[in-house]
Amino acid sequence: MDIQPITTTQRLQVGRPWLLSGHGTETNQTITLDVAKFAETTHWVRGIKTVEAHFKSGLPLARNATSQLYEPYNPAATDGHEVLAGFLDTETAFGVGATRIGAALRVHGLIAPAKLPVPFDTGAIAKTTASVTYAA
């Protein structure tokens, strides 16, 4: 058997149509995502190889009060992730099978809710720790 290493390169196009201004970039926070809480195709997509994937930028996120990890924001929840913490700042690559991924959380800025990668109702936000302004 001949085992040879194979190297592949995947480039992510950073597309942030939901971000209306660069203002707030300096306030991004480093966070850890709980991969199991996110759904494939809704929150992340596979890359060229089946073991590569990336989270979509602009995902609304909340911190789980128990694990202290970040997961999708859900305004109907009652376990901590009903508090909007901010938005995933950029596409974030990871290996399929990973359980935790480091990422950047945008906590301040100007956002177009209609251009986020998932449906987002600004009227449903009851609690937030983010300082975000919403515009069309």
Structural commentary:
This protein is mainly beta and 136 residues long. Helix content is 0%, strand content 34%. The protein has strands at residues 29-34, 44-46, 52-55, 60-63, 70-72, 83-84, 86-88, 92-95, 100-106, 108-111, 127-128, 131-134. The strands form four sheets. A five-stranded antiparallel sheet has the order 1-9-7-4-5, with no helix packed on it. The chain has a three-stranded antiparallel sheet with strand order 2-3-8, with no helix packed on it. The radius of gyration is 16 Å and the shape is globular.
Order of helices and strands: EEEEEEEEEEEE
Pick out the low-confidence regions: none
Strand-residue fraction?
25-35%
**Strand tally:** 12
Task: Give the integer mean of the pLDDT values.
Answer: 89
Shape: globular
Q: In what order do the strands lie side by side in the largest sheet?
A: 1-9-7-4-5
Give the N-to-C terminal Cα separation. 59 Å
Q: In terms of structural class, how would the helical and strand content be classed?
A: mainly beta
- As a whole number of angstroms, the C-alpha radius of gyration is 16 Å
Helix fraction bin: under 10%
Sheet having the most strands: 5 strands, antiparallel
Characterize the quaternary organization of these chains. single chain
Helix count from the secondary structure assignment: 0
